[in-house]
Every structure is written in C-alpha cells, then in structure tokens.
Amino acid sequence: MVDRSFAVRFRPERGNVPWMLLVLAVATAAIFWPAFASKDFFSDDFVYVVANPALQRATFWQILSQRVNAFEFLPLRDLTYWLDWQLFGASPLAFRLHNWAWYLAACIAAWFAAYRLAELHAPDDSRNTLVALVAVAIFALHPLHVEPVAWVASRKDLVSGTFVLLATALWCQGIALRRVALTWLALPCLLLALAGKTTAIAFPVVAFALWWRWDRRRTLNVLAPLGLLAVLAVGALLLDMSIRAKTGFASISDLSSWNPLALLLRIGGMALWKTLLPIDLRLVYDELFPAIVPGFGMHSALGLILCLGAVVALHAYWRRKALWAFGVIWFCVFLLPYLQIVPTRTWSLFSDRFAFLPVFGAALAAAVGLSRIPAATWRRAAIGGLAATLIGLSLLRSYDWRSSEALLINDSKHASGAMAIQEAVVDTVYLPAGRFDEAFAAAARIARPVERRMLELRIESRRLQQQAGKQEWLAFAARVLQTEGELVTGNIQVGSMFGLGFFAYGLPAQAEAIYRALIDSRGIAAGERADARYNLALALSRQAKHDAALATYQEVVDDPMTPRHLRVSALNSIGAMKNGVGNPAAAEQAFSAALAIDPGYEFAAVNLANLYAAQGRDADLRRLLAGPAGRLAEVRKRFPGQ
User: What pairs with residue 293 in β-bridges?
Assistant: First the structure.
C-alpha cells in the first residue's frame, strides 16, 4: 500500500529544472570552450576512434555484439563513437560537443538523484531544493570534470555516470513510495551504465544500503531487482577481467606484487586530495609527497583518514540517517571498482576522470554542510565563493586542453615522478620535432632511476639515428647491450627500440636476438610477448628462415593472449609466405581467416583479391568485392572494374 501523504511531498520542484538546464548549459559551455576550440585528438582517442578501422567500418549490430577495440567491450560507449564518426568523421569539435551533451545529461540526472536522496533522508526539510541545487552546482563546476568532457576517450565516464545517477533517482523513488516497479527500472539503467563503463558495478552496494536503511518493512519484493543488480555487476566484472587478461592488458601474475590495502590507501588519498583541493590537475598522478616511511606516503596517510571518515559516516548513516554521511559512503564506494581483482598494468594510480562519480558524493556532503549555515548572508557568500573558485579552477584546467601539445608540455612540467606523462610528451612532441634537449629534460623529471634510464636510452637512440649515423648508433647499441643488457631485454619499449634500430640498418640477426630475449623475459606481459614474437617472425623471414618464421607466426595466431590486430597481421603474413612458396590453397585459407576476424583489413583483402585474379576465379573475386572488401580504398584502386 502506498503512503499517499509521502507521495505528495516527494515531488521535485519541476519548474527549477529548465532554468537549471539553461544555467548549466551556459556556464559549462563557457568553462569548456578553450577545450572545445582544440583541433587535436589526444592519446587514447586514436586507439578507440581515430585510428580504429574496426570501429569505423563496423555495422550497428557489430558494435552491439562485438568488441571493436583491443581492450574492452563497452557497446554503448562505442556506439556513440560510431555515430559521431558516421555523421561527422574525424571532427574533434563534434566529438567534444557530444561529450558535453552527455555531461549535461549527467548533471540533470545528478539533480534528480540529489533531490530524491534529500527528500528520502529528510522529507519535511524545506532546504532539500537548496541542497540538490548546490550539490549539482558543485558537481557541474568541479575542475576534475574538465578531463572527461575535453578528452574524447573519457566519454565512458560520462555515459556510465549518467545512467548510474538516473538509476539512483529511480531506486530512491521506488524505496520511498514502496513501488517495486520503479526499482525494477534501475535494472535497465544499470545495464546501460555497464555498457558504458564497468565501474558502475558499485551501484548495487548503494542500492542495498538505501533499501536496508529506508524500507521500513524491508519489502521482500525488492530483493528480486536487488539480486539481479548484483548479478549484472558480478557478470560485468568477470567479463571485464576476462577481456583484460586475454588481451594482455592485465595478468593474474600481477597479483604477486599487488598489495590491495596499499593500493586502496593511495587511490583513496589521491582522490580525497584532488577532490577537496583541485589546484594541481594533470593527466596522470604519482606520489606527490615524499614517503613518511618506506611504502607509506602522504597519499596513503590521506587514504587512512578517508577510511576512518568512512567508518564515522557509516555510524552516522545507520544511527541518524545523515545525508552527508551517505555522500561520504558514496564517495568511497565508487572508488572501489578501481581495485579490480585483476589490476590493470597501468602507469597511473589516479586520473581526473576516475573521480567523476565519487565527486557526486563529495558534492552531496558539501551541499548539506553549506545549507546548514544559519545566516542567509553567510550561506550565500559561502556558496558563491565556492562556485567562483570552482569556475576559476575549471577555466584554468580547460585552458590546458587547448591543444594536445600544450596539455602534454604543461603536465610534463608539473608531473613530478610520473613516467607515462614524460613518455607521452617525449614521444609525441619532442622527438618528432627533434627537440632532444627538452626530451632529456623531461626524462630527468622521472623519479624512479630505472624508468628514467629507459626513457633516456630511447631518446639517445633516436638522436643518434637522426644526427649521427649507422656506425655511431651501432657503437651505442653494442655498449648498452654489454653494460645494460637486462634493462634492454626486460622492457618491451626499450627492447623494441633496439630491435627496430637493427631492422633499420639491415641487421635482422641482431634484431632476432633482441626479440628472443624479450620473449624469454619474465618482465614482459602476455600481450607484449605476442608483439615481440611477431617481430621475431619478421626478423626470421628477413633472414630467409621461412620455416622458422612460419612457425613463429603460427604461434602468434594460436596464442590466446595475442591482441586482435597482431593475430590478423600474422595470418596475412602466413598467407603471403604460403603463396610465395607455391601453396595458394593454404594462402587463401590464411587470408580468409584474417578477413573473418577483421573484414576491414586491407592487406589481406588485397592479397586475396590478387590471388583470385591470378587464378582467373572471377566469380570468387566478384563475391569478395561485393562484401566489405569492396569498400576498401586500396582494393577499389586495384580492381576498379569489378
């Protein structure tokens, strides 16, 4: 039976929503405009969209049913990319405006979630609308959110966050009115959120806390949707773990050096510091402070404080139903997905976009505190001052995103100790332009000596190849291999740099030795080992060791850890070698297998078309060109009349 008196009270002031949307649209457009004006894509944008032919050539149903990138299966996120590409092509502005549209949707969902939560915790409180508006303002203007809007690759945080917040609003409404049908609506929302990003797996924890604390009769009917929410979350986690393990992006072997408690403290402390004091934002973070004791730095200390705060919040929530306590719990719960059972091989412990959902909890707690300031003048001053501060910091961060070069250079100068950001600026800005002095200066900012030395070796190798010549580079390579051989053969980037150098100077035997050592190294991840094995096969083929090369290419194909693009390329190479030794049947089989995995792989399409043409198999050639191969530029150029 529905409590009608509560139902009357439990209504958001809908007249505020259009005005809120207009203000949010204008304010966020002004804040993000420097980033919108950028004509650059950046980093993972190329992996997921710009240099991803699998996504660009996929059909609508392939997007929903197949993984179109090497790392993760997020069909809703990829569908939004696919629509942008089909409509606008490689337009950075279009992609970022689409990100902004999702951001506005997330802010509106945050309004409904904040209002429902406020009404649920204090249905007779006249300040609920103020709490919701202040929470949404903090959420919308927070500087940590510049990255998910400005970075195309961060759209998954926006897509997933929107549906998590919407699911929260529906769940609160269902619990408050005891309408189980409304709680069931949270299921499709969670499914869509998981199709955007798997960190939505934390939502069932929040849903359980709300049901257990606020359903006075503990309606058993709610257990069915709650159980299915948990099943969805566990299934998404297992799928994500499986994909990461198969692609070599993470490995069970990582667990041997993984301390979940230490990682929990560092991530929690990093998130707390950046949420409360967002004045030093960057793409990646490492320890910003010296260690208090070995393995325990300032961020770990802040993480310990956060854990203690979470305990206090749990007590306040269970005893007094405090909304601020729920905000703290939300903040902590949505950081937990970054402690997956199979941790990612990553160079970063925290990134701005990771805080997209946790910031909502912090904003909720802050809004409760601001709304409780007794004097109206002081309350308005505090809210206005906080909003002005957030706007200023967000504008500064948005200005960093005006170009990829500006972003990398700015971050590299301030990212003390972070390996990846220094690598990024060196590889994409300094080395292509021959700015070697600046490249060495970036490497010098890396805190760990081994990582610093690895980047210095890559810079010196590139400098010698451009400014010296073959003999100087070979002397450098011989000296390094003799004195620092373990460093070279224990890191895929450094080892591949030497291997490619030997290839460039016509020394495939030396390249073969490098890649064999990389394959045998214990420090190489599964996906990286497949890359080294593929290059080994290439070195063998250049030495006319055809049988060994074929066997190695076949190992690449058979290895379940091999990324999709390497498997397709290896099949194409097998086909080319089989055709070269007079075995067209085996060559056709290999080319066809490559196209079955990736119908848009141009090399295999051209090779198979040439094979059909050489054999006079016109019907097979027409059939091939009538399919996806017929849309490829190189095939159309070679077979214009078919």
Answer: 296
As given in the structure block, the two tokens for residue 376 are 């109206």
Helices 376-400 + 356-371 axis angle, to 10: 160
CA 250 – CA 527 distance, rounded (Å): 9
CB 326 within 8 A of CB 317: yes
- Fill in the DSSP letter of residue 247: T
pLDDT band per the 50, 70, 90 thresholds, residue 527? low
d(CA 181, CA 143): 37
- 322: tokens are 């405090």
The closest of 235, 244, 267, 234 to 336, measured between CA atoms, is: 267
Beta bridge partners of 296: 293
CA 23 to chain centre: 30
What are 18's two structure tokens?
Answer: 């259009």
Q: Nearest CA to 143 among 20, 32, 272, 42? A: 32
pLDDT > 90? residue 330: yes
SS3 content of the chain, % helix, strand, coil (to 5): 75, 0, 25
Summarize pLDDT for 24-73 with one digit per residue, the tens: 888 889 999 999 988 888 888 888 898 888 888 888 888 888 888 777 88
Of residues 597, 605, 598, 555, the one with CA closest to residue 575: 605
CA distance 224 to 596: 41
Determine the Cα angle at 44 with ends 90 and 89, to 5°: 10
The label of the residue with tokens 């002397």 reads 475
Which regions of 569-620 does DSSP assign to beta strands (E)? none
pTM given for the model: 0.80
Nearest partner of 590 among 567, 613, 621, judged by Cα = 567
| Orientation angle between helical segments 526-542 and 546-558, nearest 10 degrees | 160
Residue 349: which residues within 8 A CB-CB, separation 6 or more? Answer: 263, 266, 267, 270, 285, 286
| CB neighbour list of residue 207: distance below 8 Å, 6 or more residues apart | 167, 171, 186, 226, 229
Distance set, CA 53 to CA 21, 57, 74 (Å): 36, 6, 17
Alpha helices in 178-297 (DSSP H): 180-184, 186-194, 203-214, 223-246, 260-276
Whether 6 has a pLDDT exceeding 90, the answer reads: no
Among 540, 474, 549, 465, smallest CA distance to 508 is for 540
- Give tens-digit pLDDT for 438-450: 999 888 888 778 8
Among 82-91, 197-206, 403-412, the minimum mean pLDDT is found in 403-412
Structure tokens at 168: 């929260």
| Contacts of residue 432, Cβ cutoff 8 Å, sequence gap at least 6 | none
- pLDDT value of position 422: 83
- Give the mean pLDDT of 501-522: 87
Q: Considering only CA atoms, which of 121, 70, 632 is closest in space to residue 330?
A: 121
pLDDT of residue 155: 95
How many C-beta neighbours within 10 Å does residue 197 have?
28
